[in-house]
Amino acid sequence: MALPSIRTEAALARTAANRLAAAPRAAKDTALIAMAQALRQAQTTILQANAADVARAESSGVADSLIDRLRLTPDRVSGMAAGLIDLAGLPDPVGDVVRGWTLANGVDVRQVRVPLGVIGIIYEARPNVTADAAGICLKSGNAALLRGSSSASDSNRAIVDALRAGLMTSGFDPHAVTLLEGGHDLTAAMMAARGLIDVLIPRGGANLIQTVVTGSQVPVIETGTGNCHLFVDADADLDMATTIILNAKTQRPAVCNALETILVHADLAQWTPRLIDTLDAAGVSVHGDPAVRQLDPRAIAVPDDDWDHEALALTVRLAMVADVDEAIEFIRAHTSGHSETIITNDLTASTRFTSLIDAACVLVNASSRFVDGGEFGFGAEIGISTQKLHARGPMGLAEMTCTKYVLVGQGQVR
Amino acid sequence: MALPSIRTEAALARTAANRLAAAPRAAKDTALIAMAQALRQAQTTILQANAADVARAESSGVADSLIDRLRLTPDRVSGMAAGLIDLAGLPDPVGDVVRGWTLANGVDVRQVRVPLGVIGIIYEARPNVTADAAGICLKSGNAALLRGSSSASDSNRAIVDALRAGLMTSGFDPHAVTLLEGGHDLTAAMMAARGLIDVLIPRGGANLIQTVVTGSQVPVIETGTGNCHLFVDADADLDMATTIILNAKTQRPAVCNALETILVHADLAQWTPRLIDTLDAAGVSVHGDPAVRQLDPRAIAVPDDDWDHEALALTVRLAMVADVDEAIEFIRAHTSGHSETIITNDLTASTRFTSLIDAACVLVNASSRFVDGGEFGFGAEIGISTQKLHARGPMGLAEMTCTKYVLVGQGQVR
After folding, report:
1. How far is residue B127 CA from its own chain's centroid?
2. Which residues of A touch B403 (CB under 8 A)?
3. Of B223, B312, B333, B230, whose CA–CA distance to B275 is shortest?
4. Pick from A107, A244, A387: which is nearest to B370 by CB?
């Protein structure tokens, strides 16, 4: 699909977005519940479509881990429906008055949350994202232009058909949710669709995100990459440090808030081999800087001396640093701006760390696995923004909106 | 200056920004006062440098209006200094806790305002912007990379020399304020400097803004273009409508919050020629749609039937519409998303208008000239954002910051 077709789809989405923007919460919640019911009713059709996608992927030799992401089951379809029901239960950010005041001349000023408009979401082969993203956009009053992976095209089509059926039974314009289909030229066309699409959100691997953030003329919200560090300070509670490291590294290694690099205070040289014992026992391979490798030969060199890579696997990098300031310098050189942690009982060090580290989330004595919309209590999450403009950190429903100022006077002029 | 030199300057700016981010308000205010004093002390040098810029512009036949913007006087230098003193008196947004809560497991979460980092500002030949932008960036904890017009290069250099002298006497890194010099390749290099510059803000004409928003790999805040409409509803107070129209159109026609198009309810056909009388008497040329021209032949056709153009002059476009819904449709087709006004005493119409118009500011019975950081009480303004991401509407000090989450626990894991 090239730019002209995007233009048509985006214009229809804009009309739907204009109506959605004015829809009260109750109407949107009714639609979400209808969409959930339609998904459940279409379960057989969705699973058949998914089976075709999976068969195609298997015959072209796609890796098992990708096929697992692609595969839907009755439980996963129920999970998508349950996600929409959950969204119906969340507060609506649209209409919230962020702040308000009255000018000296009597004009009332209110800053009010409003939807962004038409949101383009580019994602990979997980069909559940289709329902998830559509629901989050709808609840926040936005129309969604969804561009999933072509390997999931049959599944996505069946899911969007069901979602649109739910929209129509509840009196909404089906163009509030649109599946865009096409090859790489479609991504290019979406990135060129300035004025047609208000915001692009890429969800997926580092390559996809890099392509979109550097090539898009449409404003982008960058999500995802987490090269997360943890610094164990000299007077850390070492049991606490070990527990948090194990949790942040091993509880779910393939996610962006998992730990990638541990920095250890030089005073803890004796403890470092014990930490490596624990990591080893948990099945984590340890790569180390020269100082670590001298302390414990089990640590092997960091491949290509690349400390910026997000491994998303059961490996961890380990380096010794002289103090909190050297830890801060190290993190500044390598952070992806996601989540950075200090384990310490020293108030000066923790204050220095939280004040000087520039990242979406800075943690003291807690696992970076808490950096998550669900854990934050947002109820829904479209991703974790690692950029500074607009939203930073876990993005819930409020982060899918912008604001406008409404000024009401009685004839005032300057 | 090409990308390699930007890299050097941006790295120095980053170091300065890291220090600035941790500077308390008192230190920043001391620096602003020292910068103001240095500007006053350098007045003779600055005026001499400016005279050279003006002489160069005159000899190359630059228009008088541009030379007026370029020219500095003792009053204008004092004005720049006074602007910095005013900034010192404003609250510091950095460190504000936007919101905070405690997770069920006892982890404290705080969302705290922090500086954006290194801000690139690209602007045209008004040397006072140099001091103004540097001051706003400093107060909000950001380092500024300033790229002014080459026609103001001598003035800008003299101003930045003074500002840096002030920074140094107050113990700050002079690289907190950097003047970048070069031709069009400099703008291109700034737009390519992703990771080095956190945000680019173009301030100037439509061409400059269009170039930057469509070509930049660095996130941009779009400011400026205001194709502002005003709708006179059937039951408007017509004296109020006339007063507000005159104010919005004529008080300062060359600014972005000035009125460009008036939409009149069809029931007010008889009043329309009286409105044109008033506009005529105020020296405003009226262009009209066919319905208006039929009512009053003094109205001439809209050149090229272009209703999107921001004239920034004493001309106005006038069109008849059937009702508030047709006015909303018209505005949706032509708005630049800046400021849109309704004059009405009908609550249903005003609610419909404020709810359905998608713009940074929507006004009821007040002049769009109030859409201004100063009028809003922000004390300082870097521009008026017409984009939806990050900041929308007048941008004060808080809009020059982002946030980070700080999580403090006692060993919690998932």
Report:
1. 16
2. 392-393
3. B230
4. A107
What would the mean pLDDT of A352-360 be, rounded to a whole number?
A: 97
Closest CA to A28 of A129, A219, A177, A212: A177
Is the model's pLDDT at A224 over the cut of 80? no
Delimit the domains of chain A by residue range: 3-223+390-407, 228-374
**Which of 1.10.510.10, 3.40.605.10, 3.40.800.10, 3.30.1330.60 is the CATH number of B3-223+390-405?**
3.40.605.10
Judge: A406–B101 Cβ closer than 8 Å, yes or no: no
Query: What are the C-alpha distances in Å from A141 to residues B152, B338, B354?
Result: 46, 21, 16
Rounded Cα distance, B406 and B112, in Å = 7
The count of residues in chain B is 414
- CB neighbours of B187 closer than 8 A, spacing ≥ 6? B122, B147, B211, B212
Closest residue in chain A to residue B413, using alpha carbons only: A367
- CB-CB under 8 Å, B101 with A361: no
Asked if the model's pLDDT at residue A202 lies above 90, the reply is yes
Distance (Å) from the alpha carbon of B351 to chain A's nearest alpha carbon: 10
Q: Which CATH superfamily does the domain covering A228-374 fall into?
A: Aldehyde Dehydrogenase; Chain A, domain 2 (3.40.309.10)
Tokens of B194: 């992703």
Chain B neighbors of A21, CB-CB under 8 A: 355-356, 358
Q: Does residue A405 carry a pLDDT above 80?
A: yes
Single-letter amino acid code for the residue at A363: L
**By C-alpha distance, which of A408, A329, A401 is closest to A98?**
A401
Contact pairs from chain A to chain B, CB under 8 Å: 215
Q: Which of A361, A365, A412 has the CB atom closest to B405's CB atom? A: A361
Report d(CA B70, CA B297) in Å as an integer: 41
In this predicted structure, the answer to whether residue B205 has a pLDDT above a threshold of 90 is no
- Full-model pTM: 0.94
pLDDT over threshold 70, residue B3 = no
Q: Helix, strand, or coil here: B72?
A: coil
